[in-house]
Give the backbone structure.
Amino acid sequence: MSFFFRQTGALGYWVSDRIDTPHCFSTRLGGVSEGNLASLNLGWRRGDREENVRENLRRLGAAVGFVPEDIVESRQIHSTLVERVGRADRDSFHRGLSRERDGLVTDEPGVALTAYGADCPTILLYDPEHRAAAAVHAGWRGTAAGIAARAVETLTAEYGTRPGAIQAAIGPCIGRCCFETHREVPDAMLAALGTDAMEAIDTPDGPPPYGAEAKFHVDLKLVNTLWLRRTGVTDIDVCPDCTCCREDRYWSYRRTGNRRGSQAAIIVLK
């Protein structure tokens, strides 16, 4: 594991030494937002004051290497849609929220690709050969449908990326320990990945068949890792933290519902 937790004063965020360009996976630590949004809320639609979100982005960007005006984002809809963006899309803020996508790719310097999460996995990809990058939001539906693989395919189609050259990092998200679900979720993983998905699923006690009320635990980090491996990506780093377990460090939709802020994964080419 080569994830490192960096702390500058109260500001805390994760980086992976596998990725050779400025990036981060944020936490809730070190911002100016208050109440249930305390304190590094990066989400524009969480009911926060706009000046708070901009200041939070400014603080994080000063540490990582971007300015708020570099941000390119999208309205995340739990899809497998991945879009190429560039400098013309920067400073999108609310404008960017009309772009319904869950993955963004670029090869243009100074573009800070952003994916939001509060339990859903976020994934950053970097191609050092062609200097291209991707930021991905992978909710369970997107995870099952293979948005991680779609992002790799888009990098290859747009920039000639070799999957074997990609540096990948999967950020903090809800862990296998806390992602308890009915069979809809494991069934979707099995339908997509076949028996390979079994290693990411904890089944209820007792033999099958399982009833409608049976509960399963699913490892979303591992499912996304399986998708990346299928495309030929081998350099994959995985953050150990569970967002639901660590109330001191993250917001979690599973834990508090919509009374929460948003973390973000951000990657920028220099």
